[in-house]
User: Fold this.
Amino acid sequence: MRSQKLLSVFLLLLFFVPGVLFALSGGWQTLTLPSAASIWDGTAAQWTENILAESFAGKDFLCSAAAALQTALGRNQQNGCFYGEDGILQNLPDADEAITANNLQALQAYSAQTSSPCYFLLSPTAAAIAQQKIPSLALESLFNQKLYIQRCYSSLSSFRTIDAYNGLFSHQSEYLFYRTDSRLTALGCYYLYVSAGEKLGYTARSMDYFSISYPMHDYRGNLTQQVPYAQVEPDVISLFHYQKHNRDIRLVQDPLGNASAAPLYDTSLLKSSDPLQVYLGPNRGVTDLLVSETPYDGRLLVLTDGSCNALFPLIAIHYQQIRVVDLRSVTADQLAQINPDSFDQVLFAFSVETFGYDSLVGDVLGED
Amino acid sequence: MPLASFTFLYLFLPVLLAVYYLFPQRMRYGVLLGISLVFFLLGDPVSLLFLSVSATVDYGLGLLMEHFDEQNPRRRAIMVVMVAKNLLFFFGVSCFCQLHGLQTPLGLAVCTLLGTGYAVDIYNGEALYEHNWGKFLLAHILFMKLPAGPLVRYRSLCEQFSPKKADLAQMSESICLLIQGAAKQVILGVPIQQLYTALSGFSRSEHSVFSLWLMPLCAAMSLYFTLSGYCDMARGLGGMFGVALPRNFYYPYQSRSVTDFVGRFNISVTAYLKTYIYHPLGEDSGGFASAALNIGLVTLLWGLWFGFRINYLLWGLYFVLLILLERSVWGRILVKLPVFLLRVYTFSLVLFSFVIFNGRSVGQSLFFFLGMLGLGGLAPATSPVLYLASQYAPYLILAVLFSTSLPHSLKGALRRKSPAAAALAGAVCYGALLILTTGFLLHP
Assistant:
């Protein structure tokens, strides 16, 4: 009888403690008396539920425990992502045909404005390349990105297309994609650089030409928001520095407006909200990579979605100037000031994740 | 407000307990009424308005009935009005909501059927006329039974609103039931429902024989863990506030016959139908035809408890047919079979019943049924289904295990052997279960 009483007290305490901790942490101040209207339409209950869930004592511990148990019970997919100890991979659904058609049309329209040769690089996401990390039974239902890329390439006959898929797939066991981010690592971008060389007309340098530094070992990328409690090792951010011929690459942010020069790889940006800004600086729409002490005089215009920014410092060693236009933040004015004919080549570099699902390309280039 | 939510478990419940036990015993039913009103108001204020009015009308008609002696035909007329009003309200609102795709109002079935039972009981002299409107209203809107029952008779409820002393020793059982109910819903019910939803999103060409077997299994387990979870929570909460509520599920998936299954699944509904329909109709005293008709009617209504759809009607008919076959054809053979085979027999037939239960139309159920038997030209299994099954297999295994009486038997054995060890193990297990349930609520 006594043990039953003790059990009652113990279990009752479990119901009371979170409320007491909530009160002690000042949580009660966030709760206000619901209005009659919010009670009537049912939003009051949901609002209170959200407040309590957000500030629940030991939330992280409880979520981690639940996530660990769910993973132990075999779950490896959440919010459209596969996850495991070796990383989080976004499982893309079938691409949106209407968006794709609109984006392709925009590329064709833009390329029609210039006599400079146009190149198209459509890079696959980790789910298409790192298939060894995906449960074998799930492979069959994956979106076929290889086929999608081929289909996009074949509909742009006037473009020279860059085979990013095979270039990455042949190194699939390497660290090509971040474990916690959907973007390519510097190594992944290096292999894109190699793949692009043949079409863009340069001889890609071997890895020996670069020294690689690793300034950040605890990067947690955008996919951790999708699977917040997955037990995934944080990522390492690496920087490729060209070693030979004293070639100096400098960044010029916003060259069409308030131009500001900065060294390549400003490592102070590793402390910013998006440490991957280290490759091209804060996203200001237009960024120039200017190379001095170089025998090359080519000028390359890149229109991109920011999915492979580590690629451009590598390509830069074969050019005198690369102008990178990030369609996510470029303004109509900035775009209007750029004359593609003043560049020797125009490269469109996008990820399947953007091109197949986001109307960004069509919206921005279509306006032009 | 769902019972398995932060707002209820960690805000509403502690405040309710504190308020309830701070008041003197004689005032506690009044506090409980206040609590139920607030719960109802936060959950579904529109239903509160209508059901309170309905209960008040029943209360008034009951008092009116008391004024006439037993021979007066007006008593019968009042009873008929009360029953007709409640049933019309129940069926009318249910059908309206179903036709317009609206959610059925909170507590509709529980309140209206309680009112119906009250009318019949006072007419038959099986319950006393209620003179206290507050107690009458409380019996209708008692907060813990509103979401999913159990369905109780008025007289069994009102007897419990008398002053009672808090018993900490008994309360442990109630808290354990509450935690168990929440865990059933959140840890097992929700993931299995997710699997079912994923499978039911498949087109006909995407289905395989395996997926069609998996679907009724998921449906059966999901329904059981959701409904029995609700009822466990209601019983636990009832115990914490001094109201004993009956159990609604008694390990239905280990039944030894289909007749047994109907008696173990949604027990309070079965008991209600037996009390107000089967017994007045003479049970099985009028020969086979009469018994068949009575059993058929009760079982059919038992099936329709879940809604007014052709598939639920067929679900009820399926059980009517099986119960009658068990009574008249193979019942004598069944009693000679080993228990294991009886359970396999029952579970297989119950599994098939969920093909009818979950079909969106008769045609779809037929497609599922033929597909399960390998007659639909479907592949035995496809990778997407195998992948889904691999994701949820541990949940299904746990669900099957916890739908049996095995965990309860182990708990009982430990308690008999060492009560102190059982209490310690209970504290650890139920504490951990509550923490995990909270974790699953936070990280669904």
